[in-house]
Structure formats: C-alpha cells, structure tokens
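name: query_chain
kind: protein
chains: 1
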Amino acid sequence: MTDQPDARKPDITLPEKVRYSVLRQAAEVLGGLTAEEVPPPLRAAARFAPAKRVQLSGAALAATIETDAAFRAKVAQAAEAGAGPLSDALREGTVPPAADPVQVGTLAFLLRPAGWAEMLDAVRDQLSAAVDQSRSAEADRQRQRLQAQVDDARQDRRTQALVLAETRAELDATRRQVRDLTARLRAAEEAVEAARAELAQLRQQSSRGESTAQGEARRLRQRLVAAEDAVEAARRSGREARNSDDARLWLLVETLAGATQGLRRELALSTPEQRPGDAMAQAQRAVQEQGAVPLPARGDDPVLLDRLLTLPMVHVVIDGYNVTKSGYGNLPLQTQRSRLVTGLGALAAQTGAEVTCVFDGAGRPPLMPASPRGVRVLFSESGHTADDLIRRFVAAEPRGRPVVVVSSDREVADGVRSSGAYPVASAALLRRLDRG
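structure:
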C-alpha cells in the first residue's frame, strides 16, 4: 500500500459521507480481528455491533486509523478487496470518470496513493456539486408544487363559485318548502285543538271509571282484612297445638330424668375418682418413685406402642422426618412422606387413635396428596421446627389425656415426658407399621 507524505495531511477534513464510509469499513474490520490484533484504544468498541461501533466509538476509530498505520492497512486491505479495478486506478494516480466519489474518497484516504489529498479535494468538490444540484432540483420541485397549489386554488375558486350558485338555487327551493310547511303547521295546530277537546271528553269518562274501580278496591280490602283475620286465628290455633305438644314432651323428658335418677340410686353410682388418663399418670409416677428406668426414648419394642394405643382417647403425635430418616432415609422426601402417611392411615383405621404427623418446613408442599381419614398432617411454620410444634401439641392437651410422642430425639423425649406425654422411639413405630 502506498502512503506518501503530504504537507497538507494534518489539514484534511473528510466529507461527511466519506468519513462515515471509512468508519463503517473500520468497524467491520474491527469485528474480524483477534483480541491480540485489536488496537488498545478500540478494545472496548470491539464488543459492540458494527453499527454501535460507528455510533458510540466513531472518534476513537477515526483517531486510530490516523495514528495506527497497521490498523489502517487492514482497513485499506478490506476496502481494496471490494473495490476491484478502482483501487488499481487510484494507485496509478487516475480516477475513472464514472467512479463513485464516496468510494474514491474512502480508498484514497485509506490507501494514501500519490496525490491522495488532491483526490479528496476533487471528491469534496464533486459531493458539493452534487449537493448543490440536489438543492437546485429540490427548489425546482418546490416551485412546481407551489405552481400546482396555485392552479388548484384557482380551480377551487371556480368550483366554489359554481357551488355558491347551486346553494342560492337550493335556498330558493328551501324558502318555498318553508312556506309549504307553515301551511301544514297551521293545519296541524287545528288538529291538536280538536284532539284536546276529545281528550277532555275521555278524561270525564275515565273519572267515572276510576270511581267504579275505587269501589271495587274497597270491597277487595274488606276481603283481605277478613282473610288476615282467618290467618291469625289459624296461627293462634297452631300455637295452642304446639304448647300442648311441648307440655307432653316436657312430661316425657321429666319421666326419663326421674327414671335415670332412680337407676343411679339403685346402682349406687357416684362420680369416679380416677379416670384412665389419671391411672396412666399415677403408673408413670410410681415407676419414677421406685427408681425404675422410664420409658426409653430410643426403645424399639412395638409391644410398648401397642399397649399405649389401647388407651382410651389416645393422641399419637409423630415427628415425621425423624421416623422416615430412621426407616427409609435414602428415598426422596416426597416418597418418604407418602409412605409414612399411608401407614399412619392404616394404623388410625385399626386402632381408632387420633394421629397427628408433623414435618419440618414452612407450608404444605404443592405435591402433597390428601391425608387419609383420621390422620392430621402439619408442617412447621417458617422459623420454627417440628419439635416446637410437637411441644405445643403436648401442652395443648388436658392433663390426664394419654398423649404418645414418636421421636428418637432425646431432647424431644425428655421435654414431652416432663409434660406428661409418653415418648416412643421411631423404630417402634416403624416395626408396628411393618407388622400391620
């Protein structure tokens, strides 16, 4: 590539179209360079799309083309590849007459052949002449548009004159119609007067009919009053019948109450001093006073659980994940929950016990199936554990009701035992479910 020194080089200002063509060619070339080939000032611009490079980094591209000969050579090579014979002609110092001035200016600026500054001056003159010619053509078109508007205005004026004549003719016809309508209006007013006289006569007839209707309405009101009196008499009769039925029912209830009291006196029944829950509590205290080992929190004997399930009104509270992790912790959590809850449904159906299963987690999972009959499935709220919810269940139960807590957690077992509940190890429940 030829790059001849030129004393005018610092003062050259590219025409806007030539400058844009050079920047666009440089932006395309920049996208095809490797990271090592990209000039340091253009590394940020290399990340943009070609159009964004020209828009956001045009000044950096122009400065790099001017100062970095290697980068300018790559851009010139790319421009020369698409120029064909034009680049050869420029290297020889000739400009084909039919060549695009923008392309000539772009190649001249990038290739820098001998006399490239003069070539740019010629391109600038050609572009200025083209702009002047375009402005002159636009002025001619503007004059033609104005002349056409004047002709249209003259035609509109002639058209308006014709419309005015037609409007005057229509106005005369309208005046004739007004006279005709005025005559019709007088006739209509006479008809209205006749209608008013007829209406007065009809009102007189209506007044006589209204008097007849009022008499009929009075007769109907009298009949209505008689019907209301009959309804009230029926209501009083119904109340008297109900009072008689209530008296008979009261006598029957009093008879049953007297029979019940007599049976209680005959059997000598009194209020029980001890209930099943109290007996279980006394047995637990007796075991503790004799120094025996209390029910182990980690025992795995299902016989103990069977005895507890026979207690009346027993409530079984299960630490869900503690049980599933002990029995089948290798399964997914959803499968663990489904397997345990299904087994608890069968246990509740067999024993009639109230069963509550508590899992850790804030809210019920979306894929959790419906709970079986007799089984309550809950999840601890956010910020709390299943252990906290189990303690709340135990505290909510009245003293004396048997409550069984299934968990192998020693801390949970000790806590519920102090509240009067019976801790059972998870292994015992698993064996009981497998046996069932």
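note: The radius of gyration is 55 Å.
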